[in-house]
Amino acid sequence: MLTVKNLEVSYGAIRAVHGITLNVEAGELVTLIGNNGAGKTSTLKAITGVISNVKGSVELNGENITKMPSDKIAAKKMAMVPEGRRVFAGMNVRENLEMGAYLRRDSEVQQDMEKVFTLFPVLKERLKQQAGTLSGGEQQMLAIGRAIMAKPQIILMDEPSLGLAPIVVESIFESIKNINLQGIPILMVEQNVFLALNVADRGYVMENGVIAVEGMSQDLLQNEMVQRVYLGMED
Ligand SMILES: Nc1ncnc2c1ncn2[C@@H]1O[C@H](COP(=O)(O)OP(=O)(O)OP(=O)(O)O)[C@@H](O)[C@H]1O
Ligand SMILES: [Mg+2]
Predict the structure, then answer these.
(1) Residues 99 and 131 in one domain
(2) For 90-133, what is each residue's pLDDT tens digit?
(3) How far apart are the CA of 151 and the centre of ligand 1, in A?
(4) Whose CA is nearest to atom 16 of ligand 1?
(5) Are the C-beta atoms of residues 187 and 156 closer than 8 Å to each other?
């Protein structure tokens, strides 16, 4: 589905991602975890074409999309939920959701909006509210809902838990799992390692621009280094 090989990302002379290889298969929920500055956002931005100073390759369903501009990649139905949500603050909830569907010409847009409301009922109650006045959790729901409105074949998410209260994070993660179980593969960047590994099928641990460990979530939760460094557990 999504195959990233030897991806390198540089900002001028500084290299942030040093050749990473990862994949997401049909139906999978995969998490990319790691501390501040590890290179997670850079990786997502390179995959989605937001930054172009990259080496290596990115393939979506066998098609090479490396260095393709981000609008072309979006048209291939790769949806991104960016770090910090980035809802259109001055538009209302309905308009934000409609923006997610702007590339679509099919007749199921309204149906998908109903799907979003089933997942996040609060958005239906707030259709006319300006997105900028929603709570952090509601904005995250809206950002995810907007991605669903694109009828994506894969969704990439950058730290959906950022700045949210623990109970809100749990409910958002539950929704993310539901979306995935409805058949949409997801690559989710997270710093909340414990919760991310609890919902994901597989994980990659990124440190200083490289993948330090990878594996099934259950195995990573038992991994000594992951427990010590990311779960704060002493032996
Ligand atoms: N536009 C930029 N110009 C120069 N350096 C950058 C730029 N964006 C990111 N970097 C650097 O690249 C490295 C990786 O940053 P990145 O944002 O990918 O990390 P991250 O894993 O997403 O961190 P966080 O969890 O804090 O969001 C950092 O050292 C960062 O300072
Ligand atoms: Mg980041």
Answers:
(1) yes
(2) 999 999 999 999 988 899 999 999 999 999 999 999 999 999 99
(3) 29
(4) 39
(5) yes
Same domain for 167 and 58, yes or no, is yes
For the chain (length 235 residues), average pLDDT per consecutive 10? 97 94 98 95 96 94 93 94 92 96 91 96 96 95 97 97 92 96 97 95 97 97 94 77
Two tokens, residue 197 = 């590994």
Q: What pLDDT sits at residue 235?
A: 61
- Going by the DSSP 8-state scheme, the letter that residue 132 receives in this structure is G
pTM confidence score: 0.95
- Judge if the beta carbon of residue 40 lies within 6 A of ligand 1: yes
Regarding the beta carbon of 34 and ligand 1, being less than 6 Å apart is answered yes
Amino acid (one-letter) located at 148: I
198 shares a domain with 126: no
Atom 31 in ligand 1: residue holding the nearest Cα: 37
CA-41 nearest atom, ligand 1: 22
Report residue 106 as tokens.
Answer: 């099919």
Packed helices 93-100 and 109-119: angle between N→C axes, nearest 10 degrees: 120
- Host domain of residue 132: 89-151
